[in-house]
Specification:
Layout: H1 14-21, E1 23-26, H2 28-35, H3 39-43, E2 65-75, E3 78-81, H4 109-112, H5 115-132, E4 137-147, E5 167-176, E6 178-180, E7 182-187, E8 193-197, E9 204-208, E10 212-216, E11 219-221, E12 227-236
């Protein structure tokens, strides 16, 4: 299998690259420069992916995904965690799970209140404001582990998609003993696109979700226990994506 490395950006040109091509990627040292975090700060968060509960909402019947989810409002230096809420997307953005009211377990407070987590949200929120104007950002954070216990794991079972937000950040937390997991990013109104594999832990990819569609190909194990861990953060202006009304 041919593995194509990402077209890494200089952190100083990260925002410009997103404006020009709809996405940008930095290597682990670039992630540290972009966020102001040391590599040790990032690595200290890693163990929180070892206790993720199973995703029980997979409509394809799979058992390959574990996740947690929490929501925030990021406004300048202010990071406010909102009351725990469901993750909801319309069918227009998620053909497999759209319209489903998915209440995942929350990200542990020991993680969401840590300096590294708060710094990450502040720095990335500042970047979103540089790209689209200073404003409050309605942020959903997703811890994912894609496993290969049944032979294959699907990072994006819904296929190529948009998330219905302004920006999407994908931070590769850990990739261990797997093949596959190629990132594919295409302009939504043309055939222009890129494909590459995030291999180095703490590589960071950010894309303009209005302009681009994206997916990650399935992974397979090289050794027992092979998995791919990511932190996906979505940034939306003007409020959270509408949820299915909850019964009173």
């Amino acid at each position: 299998m041919v593995i194509i490395s990402p077209p890494y950006s200089n952190p100083n040109q990260f925002g410009d690259n997103i404006r020009q091509q709809g996405y940008a990627v930095v290597d682990p040292s670039g992630t540290c420069e972009l966020t102001g975090l040391a590599l040790s700060d990032l690595q200290a968060m890693r163990h929180w992916w070892n206790t993720l509960p199973a995703d029980n909402y997979l409509r394809d019947g799979g058992r390959y995904r574990r996740r947690r989810h929490s929501s925030f409002i990021v406004d300048g230096d202010r990071v406010e965690q909102v009351a725990h809420r469901a993750h909801w997307q319309p069918l227009a953005y998620n053909a497999l799970h759209g319209g489903l009211h998915r209440m995942f377990e929350a990200v542990p407070p020991e993680l969401t209140q840590s300096t590294a987590w708060l710094t990450l949200l502040r720095r990335l929120g500042s970047l979103c404001s540089e790209l689209a104007g200073a404003q409050p950002w309605f942020v959903e954070t997703h811890q994912f582990r894609i496993e290969t216990l049944d032979g294959i794991g699907r990072p994006t079972p819904e296929g190529a998609h948009r998330d219905g937000v302004n920006f999407v950040t994908i931070l590769l937390v850990e990739r261990r003993d797997v093949i596959g997991g190629e990132s594919r990013i295409f302009e939504s109104d043309s055939r222009t696109g890129e494909r590459f594999t995030l291999e180095q832990d703490w590589t960071l990819l950010m894309l303009d979700d209005i302009r681009m569609i994206h997916e990650s190909t399935p992974i397979q194990p090289l050794l027992s226990g092979g998995h791919r861990d990511t932190l996906v953060i979505t940034w939306r202006a003007d409020g959270f994506q509408d949820e299915v009304p909850q019964a009173e």
